[in-house]
Predict the structure.
Amino acid sequence: MTRAEGKPVDVLIIGAGIAGASLSYFLSERGVSDVLVIERESQPGYHASGRSAATLVELDEIAELQKLKMLGARFLREPPAGFAESPLLERTGVLSLLREPQWSALRQVAVANRSAGLRFEPLTPREASERVGGVLLEDEVGAAAFLPDDGFIDIHELLTGYLRHAKRRGVEFRFGVEVGGIVREGGQCRGVATTAGLIRARRVVNAAGAWVGEIARTAGTTPIEFRPLRRSVAILPAPPDVDVRRWPMVWSDPHSVYFRPESGGLLFCPMDEVPMAPCDASPDEAIIAEGLERLRALAPALVPRTLGRRWAGLRTFSPDRVPVVGDDPALPGFFWLAGQGGCGIETSPALGRIAAELIADGKTTLFDAASLSPARFGAAAP
Ligand SMILES: Cc1cc2nc3c(=O)[nH]c(=O)nc-3n(C[C@H](O)[C@H](O)[C@H](O)COP(=O)(O)OP(=O)(O)OC[C@H]3O[C@@H](n4cnc5c(N)ncnc54)[C@H](O)[C@@H]3O)c2cc1C
């Protein structure tokens, strides 16, 4: 008997990106394995999760995000035994370039950060440049902080780790099936209408990435204005005779660029945020070219004549740029796991576990649930 004909599934998750995958893992770890994940594409992680820069940068201006990243970092540094076949995190370090007032703000919270376990070392412009073969123009480096414990996440290993263990514990995944709408009966969410028929569920989780707003509209839930913002990425060949493979990531807020080693070259990002309807995003060549001009001001030796592969993805933000996790206040049975913005990979071990605890136990010991709840935006009229 198929799900469509049988009894309702306990938890139905829309989306097999990192959000849906991590939730399925943490639910099954808590013994909730009557879980069905529905994904429109033929493979997991096709959209934002497969296009990210996959970096852990714990420092964040938004306190909730920094806490979530630090929680996620613990898992990435020391995953449970048997979770992955190779390390999830390569601790290359992250070099953050700042100017005022961010630098003074960072120094003010330095002691609190250190006692919370976030190590960073202030560097002079010369020391900063030496970390990357002397390519940075020192006059362009206002202030620099080095985060030695951060680095690059093996996204493939992380995603397949979540999926493999969830499947082993009984979670079912269906690919190539699209959710067209939410089934609402008696003021409750009772399931979803899909291209493979109606599927009943006791709880539906909206983990649809850039499409979370569209899914919510079909359900008449709390109206939250999510904004999918496109971000482009390009691979730059390394300068001749420069070995970039062991460089840290360099993140410059003043120049709105970051770069890090990738496949012998550099993954370069112009840190664009272009509002866009949910779609299969393509890179913007003009925006990459403008970003390369800003890179030229900081590190002219890195600007190449020709570019390698380019791609883009959508980072989806809630109005306050903090993720939205929890039961909808107006529609029982409808749960949000949305708005991970630019940190959905590094925070996935934290957000997946928080969501699983809220679903399985009705509360979480890991985080202040109210700061993530959709109720902070007000409820829709019933
Ligand atoms: C260029 C770029 C760089 C980034 N860098 C980083 C970084 O360094 N570190 C970091 O932590 N994060 C980074 N991010 C952000 C991170 O990628 C996202 O926060 C994260 O991937 C969001 O995961 P998700 O599962 O919510 O969304 P997605 O991965 O987009 O997954 C949502 C899934 O839902 C499916 N879906 C949608 N609608 C339906 C439907 N109706 N029916 C069935 N399935 C549906 C989609 O097909 C999709 O597979 C970056 C993102 C981009 C684009």
